């Protein structure tokens, strides 16, 4: 019969790696933006300082780290202003760790919604990505402001062309965080212990990234450990873009990019394949 | 003939019982090795298919081999007891869970309303929440903008639009949430028991809105409710699910009557041999039975039906001054009545009794009886609790209103009206 010939949608028992496809995903763009708005508005309700927390948080942590690493342990900052040096690293690190963690909590935070309404589940991690990029954008403005101050007093040089390097760096680090977060979000839905482990691992990972030190001061014998970390070259590049100093290596940067593609692709595929089944496990 | 908009074939859903996670890593690995590396069947799944009839404690078929079609513009009600698979059914149709086997094919945009206030955020204002919830339910920004005023008006919370919804009264919250949902305009609308909330007035408004959507605008509605009166009035067709299977489907009124007749026959009679009878060394309950005085054996117990409660028990004490009390409770454990009688002296042995409850007394709802045995009007010998469950169905004649009738009892005390003033002699009064 004619009426059986064309169906708009089909629900099957098996899931696909490809997910819903771009067209359907795009039709939910209004939801995507409204989720970003909701998260952004709701996180600063009933706070005195409101969105200023976005700026206060890196400032406070930089002050702490300056006390610990510079004053107590005396790490070298390659002759650059310590505050600026640390703020550069912390800003990028915050993007990575918060995006990674927020994405890893996708199912945990949304379980009540997921069990009541359908939309392509990938919308939530992408809204997390946008939200974190917005926060990062605001923090980047702070970083620029601090940079301009130190440039005015003559402690650093500014090179607008060099600054463009941050764009591929931001894309790569977001890709790694999103991909890794997606994989963790799936695994941790079933085994919640992984989230505790993840928080601990991220804290350790921070010290294996050249945030408070540069690759140059790392002893040769353990330099491989820093180099094997795909984030290291990104931090060095990011710092180079802002401050003009950093051990940049295009080989390690290519390694980071390849790593990003691999983890992001496997994260998205795995998420597509399993997210619709996880409602039964949540 | 109108087009078929949803066609489901062989839908099944298997749930694993027990805790998920602890101790399952080994099984998961084993399953993965078997399936992906050795290309064999899932070792755990296989065991169920083969020993279907054995009660498997680890798994539960929430739905099993369900087939159905729904036509365009049809309002289809889903009925069944708790745990019959109704919610699973809706969740599969809404794409929230994946079926274990089978396929559903459909045409047109689907929106589902499984909860009131999906996506609402407590901290945000009513205005923000209208947009968030609207987007979640599948409306686009321009659709919400176009209907925003209508939504606000329907909800009646105009003055609180810029207040966070956590400060709303629960009634306002529900009204706003439903207002958003009521203005969805999908081709197929899936509604779970969301109408159980809100006051009678608002429920009426919602049912009216749904009725409009189906009869005037030709929208397809799939509707789960325990309110059978609403189902038979709103829906053209119905599907009766029990233990995950379709028991009957077809015209709504036929299915509802069929369901009511069958659903009530159970647990009306409890008979025990003296060995396994509940009780203690003083009292043993041998029989506890509800006998509704039905006009025909197939008709359901409704508010008009007179009920007889019969009981028989063994009394182990000679020359005892004994009284038996009958307690009626609602499912929410509120006592409706506690009837007793003048205590009498009885010898050791079997004693029988019965109590008549007239028709047109109880309101529709779920109830249970308890029996209490008292010695010397003061000492409780035995309390046989929560034993006889039954349901009273609604019945309304010539009343075009489907909201929940208030109160636990619905007696027909006469109300007489008489005219004391008529328009004609008004001029003398003023």
Give a written overview of the molecule.
The complex is a heterodimer of chains A (282) and B (430). Chain A has one domain. Helices cover 69% and strands 1% of the residues of chain A. Chain A contains 12 helices and 1 strand. In chain A, helix 8 runs parallel beside helix 12 and helix 11 crosses helix 12. The mean pLDDT of chain A is 87. By secondary structure, chain B is α+β, with helices and mostly antiparallel strands. Chain B folds into 3 domains: 206 residues, P-loop containing nucleotide triphosphate hydrolases (Rossmann fold, 3-Layer(aba) Sandwich), CATH 3.40.50.300; 40 residues, no CATH class; 124 residues, Coagulation Factor XIII, Chain A, domain 1. In chain B, 25% of the residues lie in helices and 32% in strands. Chain B contains 10 helices and 18 strands. Chain B starts with a strand and ends with a helix. The interface between A and B is large, with 37 and 49 residues.
Briefly summarize what is shown:
Chain A has 282 residues and is mainly alpha-helical. Chain A is built from twelve helices and one strand, in the order βαααααααααααα. Chain B has three domains: 206 residues, P-loop containing nucleotide triphosphate hydrolases (Rossmann fold), CATH 3.40.50.300; 40 residues, no CATH class; 124 residues, abc- transporter (atp binding component) like domain (Coagulation Factor XIII, Chain A, domain 1, Distorted Sandwich), CATH 2.70.50.60.
